[in-house]
Design a protein that fits this description.
The chain is an alpha+beta fold and about 500 residues long. The chain has three domains: about 70 residues; about 100 residues, OB fold (Dihydrolipoamide Acetyltransferase, E2P), CATH 2.40.50; about 270 residues, no CATH class. Helix content is about 65%, strand content about 10%. The strands form three sheets. Strands 1-3-4-8-5 form a five-stranded mixed barrel. A hairpin with a 6-residue loop joins strand 3 and strand 4. The two termini are about 40 Å apart.
């Protein structure tokens, strides 16, 4: 990927937005300074000065905007009322998750006694029947403070970064309606996929398919969930760019079969991407992939060349502009680290694998898995204190099943309303792919030493990787110099001999 001026300016804006996490800006002076720098950039005849001024202006503007957004996220109407109980009306924003003693889900409080806060909370309901995503509930609830740090997880900090400052506990509730608007459309799409993508399936196979299609792992047992983490396959249970690519390409292929024009096909792909993002929710990896897919279709419609770098930067800008705390989210860090590794590191690993008895597809899978594993290992250790070691073979074994699983699930969702028996048959076949994916997770996740949990082992692995990287760099440099013409090789050797002497003189 070639770094261009828009990439640089976008990165400057991202840096400014992220700076608000470290320190809040004085908004008015910072915004005025950004405006003056933009004026300087517009008036300057020196291209370098203009670029530097524009980049600094965007960074300052992002810092000011990020500070405004963080102030809004940190503001709470309900926090001062913790400990009180009132009748409330809430919208359920996600499928409830089953905890040890309760059901938990993010919810939007529309009414709390006399208040109309429209503020998100963590809703806790008794075990049993769970309300669907998008349901509007009437309940008698009591506000409590989120829990502090326990077993390495700080619930209070994690919720605050998502704009949640209180937990609403309720013993009884009833559904009084559903939320509407665009969010309501997303709720209905989610319900359709959750129902019609896996008709006739139950248990583990259904749970694995729901993870691949919707990014939800609630149905998995604790042991299987841990095997997915230990094997390095857990990312397959989170919606990512691969899911969006399957949705977009599937839409284009269906449009081709129907015989519609390319213009209508690209418009349909845009609609399908938007609908899928609405259905699975605005997770960082989903937004990034959705922006990339949408820009790809828009580039074709506008007759412009597609640039993956623009999509990556724009996705980061959108996420950080909405919530600068997203930078601290493990999903954001892992998603963008993996994509950057695919752009910059995977091609080099793929070239290093040339000449080995591997097919092109397997070579690309190994290169991408190795690159993503190396890039995300420090983040995994920092966030979760564990690093999977069998990522490459596990992903090489699981990769052939993932795209067909998602494609068949989407076909089921389209077929089920008109031909339920056919959809059930397709889902039955897809269940075998889900069983194969679960078997891969168990096989590789159950191997001795499948993941590192010891700080000493993590430090040893880091030293080994640094040593291997240094050796590979020196070997690659030696091989490159060996391929130079004789006069250029002698020049390189003279420079190498002169370097120590120059350092001694200094």
């Amino acid at each position: 990927m070639t770094v261009r001026l828009p990439h640089l300016l976008g990165c400057a804006l991202c840096a400014g937005l992220a700076a608000a996490d470290a320190a809040r800006a004085a908004v008015v002076p910072t915004a005025l300074a950004a405006a003056l720098l933009l004026a300087l950039a517009a008036a300057s005849e020196d291209a370098r000065l203009a670029v530097a001024a524009a980049a600094l202006a965007l960074a300052l503007g992002g810092w000011a905007w990020g500070s405004v957004r963080l102030a809004a996220l940190d503001r709470s109407v309900l926090a001062p009322r913790i400990g009180t109980a009132e009748r409330a009306v809430v919208d359920v924003l996600e499928p409830p998750r089953r905890a040890t003693f309760e059901l938990r889900a993010r919810a939007l409080v529309l009414r709390f006694g006399p208040l109309r806060p429209h503020e998100p909370v963590l809703l806790e309901l008794p075990l049993g029947r769970a309300p669907p995503q998008g349901a509007r509930l009437a309940l008698l609830g009591q506000l409590r403070a989120p829990r502090g740090s326990s077993n390495g997880f700080d619930e209070r900090t994690w919720l605050r970064r998502h704009g949640v400052h209180a937990v609403l506990q309720a013993d009884t509730w009833r559904v009084v309606g559903r939320r509407g608007g665009l969010a309501g459309v997303g709720d209905r799409l989610h319900a359709w996929l959750a129902r019609d993508a896996v008709p006739g399936l139950a248990g583990e196979r259904r749970a694995v398919l729901e993870g691949v299609v919707l990014g939800e792992d609630e149905g998995l047992s604790a042991g299987l969930r841990q095997d997915f983490r230990a094997s390095g396959l857990y990312h397959l249970l989170a919606v990512s760019g691969g899911n969006v690519a399957v949705v977009a390409l599937g839409t284009l292929w269906l449009a081709y079969l129907v015989g519609v024009s390319r213009l209508a096909a690209e418009a349909g792909a845009l609609a399908a991407i938007g609908g899928y993002v609405l259905a699975v929710g605005a997770q960082p990896s989903v937004v990034r992939a959705g922006v990339a897919g949408a820009l790809g279709s828009l580039a074709w419609l506008a007759g412009r060349q597609r640039d993956a770098g623009y999509a990556l930067v724009l996705g980061a800008v959108a996420l950080l502009a909405w919530n600068p705390y997203t930078l601290l989210d493990p999903g954001f860090q892992l998603s963008f680290a993996a994509v950057l590794a695919i752009f910059f590191l995977a091609p080099r690993i793929a070239r290093a694998l040339e000449g080995y008895p591997l097919s092109r597809g397997l070579r690309e899978t190994v290169a991408i898995s190795a690159a993503c594993g190396l890039a995300t290992a420090p983040i995994s250790w920092f966030q979760f204190q564990q690093v999977p070691l069998v990522t490459v073979p596990a992903n090489a074994a699981a990769a052939p099943a993932v795209a067909p699983m998602l494609a068949l699930a989407l076909v089921c969702a389209l077929v089920a309303p008109v031909a339920p028996p056919l959809a059930t048959g397709i889902a039955w076949a897809n269940g075998w792919l889900a069983a194969y994916l679960a078997a891969c997770a168990r096989l590789f996740g159950g191997l001795p030493g499948a993941q590192i949990r010891s700080p000493v082992a993590a430090a040893g692995l880091a030293l080994c990787l640094l040593g291997a990287g240094a050796y590979a760099w020196r070997r690659g440099r030696s091989r490159a110099e060996a391929g130079l013409p004789p006069h250029r090789r002698r020049h390189a050797e003279d420079r190498a001999r002169a370097a120590p002497a120059a350092g001694a003189d200094r």
